[in-house]
Amino acid sequence: MKEIELKLQGKIKRLTNKTFKFDERVKDGWFSAVYFLKTREIVQKYRPNYIVTMQFFQKDHAVLCGTDEVIALVQTFADDPSGLEIYSLKDGDQIEPFETVLTITGPYQNFGYLEGLIDGILARRTSVATNVYNVVKAAGISGTQKPIIFMGDRDDHFTQQAGDGYAAYVGGSTAQATHAMNEWWGRKGMGTMPHALIQLFDGDIIAACKAYQETFPEDELSALIDYNNDVITDALRVAREFGEDLKTVRLDTSRTMIDQYFLRNQHLLGTFDPRGVNPELIFALRKTLDDEGFNHVKILVTGGFDEKRILEFEKKKAPVDMYGVGRSLLKINIGFTGDNVLLNGQPQAKAGRRYRPNPRLEKVELQ
């Protein structure tokens, strides 16, 4: 693996604070579509002095991410990168459909084989950033912005965690589940207890919480309360045991299960879906905690949350304090396209495509 520290000059402000790590086989074209490699050979033979402008765009309203990474890629693997002319928007910029986000001008054979890699970086990072942005927006419609914890570690290959965590940060999530997810922007991962910890204490949530508190006394105590599928009973048990030391309770009830609270109060059933974590369960939990004086305890919900589900909770004003979201944030639903649109400074592009100047682009100087 090769490391390159991104050094940008001019107006572009770098958001990441770490070096990028690239596989050295990029230089050999290992990750490039073969037709780009063949085109490079042909151009070197027949059109070595021709200058092209390649522009990149996508087709949605989105939050752009990946530009720093792309610029580092070009700086690392393009031939004579200082001879290229690059204009770019910044990570975190909100972009319109078909808006040009990046242009690269220079001899095609010096950088053209990187086109697919650039598309892929922008597609993944922008998709994650936009997904997170939309979820964060949904979690704030009630007037109070609820934090979003990025919990995508179990939903994708672990090698993607650093870039995905950075994209989530760009989208508005400032709490991540692993240290790797924080690598590019300078924090450590956060988290408390999984179901496995309670299982190892024979299902005794009190014993598990005591062990956690004794081992990590500097941490705020957050109890996972759905292990026994009786969140209100277990929340009260933990709150009565730990009092002011208990800061948060987390619900992660499976969508295939109905909490014991509803089985004890079947007169409540019939007007809503009682499975999993649902607003009615949150209302009951909040009321029970408040009635016993545990107003300080916050409620964190996890398990299958996405933008639509969070909107449902927020529209009903469910008393959730934080959302933990994973899989839905990693859907790659934004694709980028790179097109050669100028040849030696003159319009030349396939039918339906044209050079789209964008005054928002800022010049990047590579070293």
UniProtKB/TrEMBL annotation:
GO terms for molecular function: nicotinate phosphoribosyltransferase activity; nicotinate-nucleotide diphosphorylase (carboxylating) activity. The keyword Repeat does not apply. Keywords: Glycosyltransferase, Ligase, Phosphoprotein, Pyridine nucleotide biosynthesis, Transferase. Its EC number is 6.3.4.21. Residues 39-124 form the Quinolinate phosphoribosyl transferase N-terminal domain. Signal peptide: none annotated. GO terms for biological process: NAD+ biosynthetic process. It comes from the Bacteria. The keyword Cell membrane does not apply. It holds the Pfam family QRPTase_N. Pathway: Cofactor biosynthesis; NAD(+) biosynthesis; nicotinate D-ribonucleotide from nicotinate: step 1/1. Residues 348-367 are annotated as: Disordered. It catalyses: 5-phospho-alpha-D-ribose 1-diphosphate + nicotinate + ATP + H2O = nicotinate beta-D-ribonucleotide + ADP + phosphate + diphosphate; nicotinate beta-D-ribonucleotide + CO2 + diphosphate = quinolinate + 5-phospho-alpha-D-ribose 1-diphosphate + 2 H(+). This is nicotinate phosphoribosyltransferase. It comes from Bacillus oleivorans.
